[in-house]
Amino acid sequence: MSDAVQLKKQITLFQGVAIIVGIIIGSGIFVSPVGILMHSKSIGLSMIMWAICGVFNTLCALCYAELGASMPQSGGEYIYIQRAFGDYLSFVVLWINFVLICPVGIAALSLIASLYILQPIFPDCPVPHMAERFIAICLVWLLIAINSRNVKWATRVQVVITASKLVALALIIIIGMVYLGKGDRESFEDTFEDSEYSAGAIALSFYSGFWAYSGWSYLNFLTEELVNPNRNLPLAIMISMITVICVYLVTNIAYLAVLSPSQMLQSTAVAVTFAEHTMGVMQWLMPILIAISVCGTMNGTALSMSRLFFIGAKNNHMPMFMSMIQYKFLTPATSLFIILVLVLCFQSSNDIWFLIEMEGFGFATVLTLVFAGQVYLRYKEPNLPRPIKVPIALPAILGLVSFALVLLTFYQKFIESMLALGLVGVGTLLYIIGNQWTNKPASIQSKITFVNIFFQKLFLVVPQESEKDLNWD
After folding, report:
1. pTM for the whole thing?
2. pLDDT for position 356
């Protein structure tokens, strides 16, 4: 059994914490932590909103911990919604992740990382577009190659990247505390002056913070590879979220010890502006550390999402070749390759930020379905073993808040939301053709078989050897 072709339990508690922290602390805290401040209009209210957003995301993560412990298969929310609502809605979740959340996110992050890698080389002029695109492509190729070669390599890379970004944050925090000690506290006088308490402003502030904390769910996609998941999954989530909340709050205080609120709002990259004011000739270091931080989010996303598509293919929701494992390296190489292709397509888009706004609609929709499914499962399967069990009111309330975010997205970004619904419609058509149309003509079936065999030979992948069947139908 030790030589069986299957995903191995290689991810420890420490590596799990590194994956979550590495994904959450990405470009947000370094590049654009001004969203909450911009909408709340005051330092005091913005700090409260940072804390509220952190607590909300921690509660969401606890609900995911219950689901992950009771259904310890890789695949995360896809598996949970399949168990609760059946085949079609689980496919919708898979499709949203496949066409929006995963490739758009990695493509945008790769371009951001490339921009900050090249910024010290072109300090007084715009970064050439071709150079930015070339570095972005190289970064994605490298991270996909690492994930395809060895899971331990990918998690070790994540640990190193997480350590690098925490060093960068520590540098910001230490400098900020030194400035505070010197008496630079003008930003903290009358902290609630001009606060904006309207429902719209609070909602927009919440939405900005919600994005900044995103990523806590990704470890649930790797449950099968997590050592002792019933213990380590909730521990990893709690340790990670508490760490991130504390780091975010203290980092914002450090920023404000050096920069005024108006300087923060005028900055496109607060950490770089911070370095320009405090680090002198070493200010070039901050863009590099930002790039490393963003690469951590990219790496964690590729590591986690490839497992989601792998599990979806096992349930006939993706092409069969995506459900196979590289026989030598024991990684879902074909799923990673498809991610690479999609990311390269989105990297060529001239309006990547427009697509990212569509991503927010998709994620809020997924959360609404997950929490609704969690409540429904309490009645549908009351005897399902739940090593971790949260009060049923918790997912019910979180589901209502997530649904409110969906409605808010429709109100604020109607065109993007309609486009996202259009993509779901395309996915529904493909679901009917690929999954429900069982009596396909021999000519079509032979072409599908040819494609599966081609990828199997190209990547030397084989079906997983496991007694587990993830299809409950």
Report:
1. 0.78
2. 64
